[in-house]
Amino acid sequence: MIKFNKLVFIIFIFLNISNSSFAEDNFFEEGKIKYDEKSYEEAKFLFQRGIVFNPKDEKSYLYLAKIFNIEENKKEVKKNIDTVLLLEPKNEEANYMLMEIELKRSNYLKVRELARSFSKICIDLCGKEKIILESLKDLEPKNES
Question: Is the pTM of this model over 0.90?
Answer without folding.
Answer: no
